[in-house]
């Protein structure tokens, strides 16, 4: 079973170079925390990453919520990624025909393909979108997390949609890093990464349908490999000490899982 294998072993099964790198970073830095930096000021994001970069394996951005975006932000983000050895995931959730996704990925103000190690995408439009992303990497190592499930209440994804999404991904082993999903049964391939959002220290909900599960539940029962935490950290009184609490808690759950 994939969830019983340690990350360093999982890295050996990875067919996507970003998945291999991410498994290796987790094993080396001993963290499976992905920080979702959902802040709208570039200096606030950079200041926070300066302090928590050492505790995370992956930083998840929504580049289009930043109010003072400049190219310098990207330069500094990449510097931090290199200094602290984390990868960058732009949570763009591409959901259009292949030609449009190719343009959205490579062009426009953000030029996501230039700086994001990996991106998120919906399977809804069909595999043309994966072909487009696969052909737009400019020879760089790039990856895609495909949405197989969502954390929000009342979302329209069905069991059949999830299964077809996993089958679609199997046709693109070189570009698929893993799935954004909530359950361990969703896929079996040990070389792919389960990225799970909707996590806080206590189970709860927000007022707009987000559902939070605990680290114990998502890692030990539901099979999460990389855990996404946003407001649990960024909206805490002390984001840095909270990030350390999440990192330690998540890693303890993972250690328990792989030690049987
Ligand atoms: N996110 C989810 N649920 C999903 C998917 C993405 O919450 O199913 I796909 C994103 C949205 C937000 C982050 O950027 O993960 C979670 O933030 P909070 O921990 O603040 O809820």
From TrEMBL:
Residues 32-246 form the Orotidine 5'-phosphate decarboxylase domain. Coiled coil: none annotated. Pathway: Pyrimidine metabolism; UMP biosynthesis via de novo pathway; UMP from orotate: step 2/2; Pyrimidine metabolism; UMP biosynthesis via de novo pathway; UMP from orotate: step 1/2. GO terms for molecular function: orotate phosphoribosyltransferase activity; orotidine-5'-phosphate decarboxylase activity. One of its GO terms (biological process) is 'de novo' pyrimidine nucleobase biosynthetic process. The keyword Nucleotide-binding does not apply. Its EC number is 2.4.2.10, 4.1.1.23. The active site is at 91 (for ompdecase activity), 93 (for ompdecase activity), 96 (for ompdecase activity). Substrate binds at residues 38, 60, 151, 210, 230-231. Keywords: Decarboxylase, Glycosyltransferase, Lyase, Multifunctional enzyme, Pyrimidine biosynthesis, Transferase. In the C-terminal section; belongs to the OMP decarboxylase family. In the N-terminal section; belongs to the purine/pyrimidine phosphoribosyltransferase family. This is Uridine 5'-monophosphate synthase.
């Amino acid at each position: 079973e994939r969830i019983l294998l340690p990350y360093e072993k999982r890295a050996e099964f990875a067919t996507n170079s970003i998945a291999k790198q991410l498994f290796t970073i987790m094993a080396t830095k001993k963290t499976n925390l992905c920080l979702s930096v959902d802040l709208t000021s570039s200096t606030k994001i950079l200041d926070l990453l300066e302090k928590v970069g050492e505790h995370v394996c992956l930083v998840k951005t929504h580049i289009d919520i930043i109010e003072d975006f400049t190219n310098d932000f990207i330069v500094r983000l990449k510097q931090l990624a290199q200094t602290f050895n984390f990868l960058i995931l732009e949570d763009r959730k591409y959901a259009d025909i292949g030609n449009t996704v190719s343009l959205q990925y490579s062009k426009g103000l953000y030029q996501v393909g230039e700086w994001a190690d990996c991106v998120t995408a919906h399977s809804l439009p069909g595999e043309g979108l994966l072909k487009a992303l696969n052909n737009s990497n400019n020879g760089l190592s790039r990856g895609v997390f495909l949405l197989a499930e969502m954390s929000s209440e009342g979302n329209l994804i069905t069991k059949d949609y999830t299964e077809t999404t996993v089958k679609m991904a199997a046709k693109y082993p070189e570009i698929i890093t893993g799935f954004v999903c909530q359950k361990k049964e969703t896929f079996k391939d040990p070389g792919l990464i389960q990225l799970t959002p909707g996590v806080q220290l206590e189970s709860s909900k927000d007022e707009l349908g987000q559902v939070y599960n605990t680290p114990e539940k998502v890692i030990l029962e539901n099979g999460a490999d990389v855990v996404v935490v946003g407001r649990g950290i960024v909206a805490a009184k002390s984001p840095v000490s909270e990030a350390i609490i999440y990192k330690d808690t998540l890693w303890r759950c993972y250690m328990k899982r792989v030690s049987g």
